[in-house]
Amino acid sequence: MEIPDILLTKLKEAKHISVLTGAGISAESGISTFRDPDGLWSKFNPMELASIDGFLANPELVWEWYQYRKKIANEAKPNSGHIALAELEKLFDAFYVFTQNVDRLHHRAGSKNVYELHGNIIENRCFDCGRQFKSDSVLADNKLPVCSYCGGKIRPNVVWFGESLPQDVLQLADSSARTCDIFLSIGTSAEVFPAAALPITAKQNGAYVVEINPNVTSFSDTADLHLQGASGEVLPLLLELFLKYNKNESK
Ligand code: OAD
After folding, report:
1. Rounded distance from Cα 97 to ligand 1 centre (Å)
2. What is the pTM of this model?
3. Are 148 and 138 spatial neighbours (Cβ–Cβ below 8 Å)?
4. Mutate to test the pocket of ligand 1, among 100, 102, 120, 233 (most ligand atoms within 8 A of CB)
5. Judgement on whether residues 89 and 187 belong to the same structural domain of the protein
6. Which atom of ligand 1 is nearest to the CA of 212?
7. Domain match, 185 and 239 both
8. Which of 74, 102, 113, 213 could join 121 via S-S bond, C-beta 3.0 to 4.6 A?
9. How many alpha carbons fall within 13 Å on the CB side of residue 241?
10. For residues 137 and 30, which has the higher predicted lDDT (pLDDT)?
11. pLDDT digits (tens, 9 = 90+) for 32-83
12. Angle between helix 167-179 and helix 197-204 axes, rounded to 10 deg
């Protein structure tokens, strides 16, 4: 894997870095992606498990599926890609990670400016009154719990198909994409909008846009640079080379 000097030069000059991550960055932590050949959507039906209609039709099944995924996320560890990204953040004044992932691995790796576009699987909220339950204290056992205030069904605090993204997070992501110097699109198929619009917005507004993905996506041709490799390998290498470059430049 070659990291071209132009990226190191641009990183050195950059003031504002905006990052979009997707399931691919957590693949090396053992968490399945969605659209790879063995991904979750090859085995499960997203409309049954990740939509309001699916929840209303079979809330127990949806709850169990998210409990199963939550256990995997909780038992997973951040990988070298998450950790390198958290280290990179320390080198810039403005460095924002907008993630489509619900696993909280960026937080656990030490990233500070993390914004969840699709919510997270760790917290829950009431389907009826919206009250948030940040801890697992609502969960008596693995069965679908009900809200202690209104009796409504508890659901995971994620964004399902057909639901709006948190508007404050989306606005911040859009504004960061418009004003950043460098945009990194990491481990995402760039298929799901509105998140997939962010790298396009960045490119249209003059950012240098880099994709990190072992596979070609529909965005690869638009990116200024496609680093074709696993994020757990590319990001640590990028960090190492940038630290060396910084040191040499300041001599
Ligand atoms: P996808 O499963 O669509 O895409 C994962 C991407 O990660 C693919 O392009 C892979 O090539 C890439 N990939 C695989 N292994 C990798 C590695 N080691 N390093 C880097 N990249 C790797 O996942 P997302 O783009 O995150 O939404 O999907 C977006 C949304 O669709 C998800 O947030 C989820 C899903 O439906 C909801 O559930 C609402």
Report:
1. 15
2. 0.96
3. yes
4. 100
5. yes
6. 20
7. yes
8. 102
9. 17
10. 30
11. 999 999 999 999 999 999 999 999 999 999 999 999 999 999 999 999 999 9
12. 30
Query: Hey, which residues are catalytic here?
Result: 118
For the segment 114-144, what is each residue's pLDDT rounded down to a tens digit? 999 999 999 999 999 999 987 665 555 667 8
Task: Give the number of domains in the chain.
Answer: 2
Whether residue 245 is found in the same domain as residue 142: no
Structure tokens at 226: 């496609």
Pairing mode, strands 154-158 and 132-133: unpaired
Domain with 91 in it: what CATH number?
Answer: 3.40.50.1220
Token code pair at residue 165: 């993204």
Separation between Cα atoms, residue 171 and residue 201, nearest integer Å: 12
Residue 214: give the domain boundaries. 1-31+78-118+164-251
Residues 246 and 129 in one domain: no
pLDDT at 143: 79
Confidence of residue 249 (pLDDT cuts 50, 70, 90): confident
